[in-house]
Amino acid sequence: MSRIGKNPVPVPSGVDVKLDGRDITVKGKLGQLSMRFVPEVEVSFDDGRITVRPKDESQKSRMMWGMQRTLAANLVHGVSEGFHRDLEITGTGYRAQVQGNKLNLQLGFSHDVVYDIPDGIDIKCEKPTSIRVSGIDKQQVGQVAAEIRGWRPPEPYKGKGVRYADEYVVRKEGKKK
């Protein structure tokens, strides 16, 4: 029995849920998201709660049960509050700035890295060494943050590079004399 799947997803006020067979559309103050549930689960919406149940006792439907419930919870959370991911830049001369719909990164290369900000994503740089990626789609926010980090991941000797704000970089000892 899935401990995650058996909990219903509470829908806060101000969020409109429309269930049409296996398709769900969630509308909130930040926008609208939709997804299609896999055929191995049954979905119902009543009394302000989304409930996900497996169709039968097969291993596949029990595996999909908790995941589909979490994806529905991410839709509701995304349109009501949104998601964000914070990045920090460490290194001499490393900095970032937003120019229109592009993120300009100076990461020690001979050229600046120009990253086009996709639709549905908002990037803010309060300081030149901090980046906040936010949006309503959790997967897209994480993907954009991973792509930015991928240009210069933190290296283990000096810790220079782009890292997540909650990431701990294991440092190595340098060479000995």
Automatic annotation (TrEMBL):
Gene Ontology terms describing biological process: cytoplasmic translation
A single Gene Ontology CC term: cytosolic large ribosomal subunit
UniProt KW keywords: Ribonucleoprotein, Ribosomal protein, RNA-binding, rRNA-binding
Any one GO MF annotation of this record: rRNA binding
Pfam (any one): Ribosomal_L6
Membrane-crossing residue ranges in chain numbering: none
InterPro entries found in the cross-reference section: Ribosomal_uL6-like (IPR000702), Ribosomal_uL6-like_a/b-dom_sf (IPR036789), Ribosomal_uL6_a/b-dom (IPR020040), Ribosomal_uL6_bac-type (IPR019906), Ribosomal_uL6_CS (IPR002358)
Residues of the Large ribosomal subunit protein uL6 alpha-beta domain: 11-82, 91-164
Primary role: This protein binds to the 23S rRNA, and is important in its secondary structure. It is located near the subunit interface in the base of the L7/L12 stalk, and near the tRNA binding site of the peptidyltransferase center.
Family to which the UniProt record says this protein belongs: Belongs to the universal ribosomal protein uL6 family.
Quaternary structure, from the entry: Part of the 50S ribosomal subunit.
NCBIfam families: L6_bact (TIGR03654)
Protein name: Large ribosomal subunit protein uL6
Biological source species: Minwuia thermotolerans
Species lineage: Bacteria, Pseudomonadati, Pseudomonadota, Alphaproteobacteria, Minwuiales
